[in-house]
Specification:
Two copies of one chain form a homodimer. With 278 residues, the first copy, chain A, is α+β, with helices and mostly antiparallel strands. Chain A contains six helices and ten strands. Chain A has helices at 21-30, 38-41, 57-60, 174-178, 191-196, 206-221; strands spanning 15-19, 78-87, 95-108, 112-123, 129-140, 164-169, 229-236, 245-253, 256-263, 268-277. A ten-stranded antiparallel sheet of chain A has the order 1-3-4-5-2-7-10-9-8-6. Chain A is globular. Chain A starts with 14 loop residues before the first strand and ends with a strand.
Chain lengths: 278, 278
């Protein structure tokens, strides 16, 4: 069965997920936070309250999409396209979330299908909306089913030098740590599996790059206060290798920031980035 | 109530502890294993079976000592003195252990008391002995209760250059990762707490140094095969700062190895080291 464009609008059953303070600490370390970010990497430092990185939203949320409705595609030819998060409240250090996922778009790019899923997550403790995830999967070889091409939106980056630039260096074993937050795809750890996928060696999780980028945005634009971080979206445009340095360039306009993340090779790896803050 | 020397021989109730594959992976990363040690840092690499570092014994074992019998001491003046492990079988990637702890010695060093605890751990799955932990606590200010001084054993290091030397560099945030394996003492993470303890900044867990050292011994002497690693003991002699390089010097005689671990400053941090292997 190929991609089924009629799946748009289909919702999944609510799914619940708990997380612990340790999960949040492990995630923060996995996206490179360290001794300079003790609110995110420790829970018992004197006069420091544990906080949670906003991009932890992708770990606890995003579930519940009715994957069985969208038809079939070859997972080996599928890549994560875009990822957006919206925060309606600060994520607590531990808690439980209930998420409802929906197929919100299916586009036919000719040589590929693009599937978009949106997931709304509620904080079980108080019943209030906590966050929203939206992500697209880019499925090579699955286009041509006669669907619409969909919009092609390109951000206009300002014609000036970035207002801020932050560089973080990932580690050789970054993916080994990041994967303990949940995504055990061996593409990120097994050299032989990565070779089958056409890579010289295991590549970093796109969402790990996303987390490094979110840290740069949080510390630069929100004074490290997660409650001021409102949304972030971007498109994965090239693979990152563990050990790469990631430079996040930011152009700020009021409470909005456009950003791009590049490696030391000059490759743009997270493109079309937009973030809002208070 | 001061130290109670009559506590020697007292046993605690059996305590059980489960561990998961993820616990073992997290520990391995916490003591510096990385992309060159995929059997210890991944569970799904093709043709690679997950193995467990022998020093994980200190995480899952060592419990069950009747601490309420030994009298009281000031924990702020207490340091971990010696640690020994014996492995009777290879530690599986996940499982459950039952441990019985015993007060096996209390010595009066004049200015300090030394408490020794021994814990025998059985693999619940098959009822067989799995490992033994022995550790001493050095309690400053608690000596002078009229007890025996105890033996003073010093290893005779051979009068030749080490047969092997291995250097691993710890990271600035090493303790932040290691602590997720269980020991959340803020001495290793909170700068203000460390200052109260008389340190310029947080120091590394002694057992993290122990784990780095165990990796060096395992890879150098056991061809990275945990089933060949039989025992390891050593004395914590100076603090390690996260970021320090650790050089393990080994003198081998048959199936026995004497070792010492030094920092780049030349400080011996793990002394009186003895390890046996097959």
């Amino acid at each position: 069965m190929p991609i089924n464009p009629d799946a748009v609008g289909a919702k999944g059953d609510p799914v619940r997920r708990k997380w612990s303070s340790k999960d949040a600490l492990l995630y923060a370390l996995g996206v490179g936070a360290g001794t300079e970010e003790l609110p995110f990497t420790t829970e018992n430092t004197r006069d420091v309250k544990q906080r949670v990185l906003p991009t932890f939203a992708v770990i606890i949320g995003g579930g519940g999409a009715p994957m069985n409705k969208v038809g079939s595609f070859n997972p080996a030819l599928m890549v994560h396209g875009e990822q957006s998060i919206e925060l309606f409240d600060e994520i607590p250090p531990e808690g439980e979330i209930e998420s409802v996922g929906e197929v919100t778009a299916i586009w036919d790019k000719g040589n590929a299908a693009v599937l978009e899923f949106t997931s709304e997550s509620t904080n079980v403790a108080n019943g209030k909306p906590l966050l929203r995830n939206r992500m697209t999967l880019f499925c090579r070889g699955e286009g041509g089913f006669g669907g619409e091409r969909g919009p092609s939106i390109k951000l206009d980056y300002p014609d000036r030098k970035p207002d801020h630039e932050v560089t973080y260096t990932t580690r050789e074993d970054q993916a080994l740590l990041y994967r303990l937050s949940g995504d055990r795809n061996p593409l990120h750890s097994d050299p032989s599996f990565a070779k089958m996928g056409g890579f010289d060696r295991p590549i970093l999780h796109g969402l790990c790059t996303y987390g490094f980028t979110g840290r740069a945005l949080l510390h630069t634009l929100c004074d490290s206060d997660p409650s001021r971080f409102k949304s972030m979206s971007g498109r994965f445009s090239k693979p990152v290798l563990p050990g790469d340095a990631l430079t996040v360039s930011m152009w700020v306009d009021g409470n909005e920031c456009l950003f791009q993340t590049r490696t030391q090779r000059g490759d743009v790896v997270l493109d079309q980035g937009r973030m809002t803050f208070q």
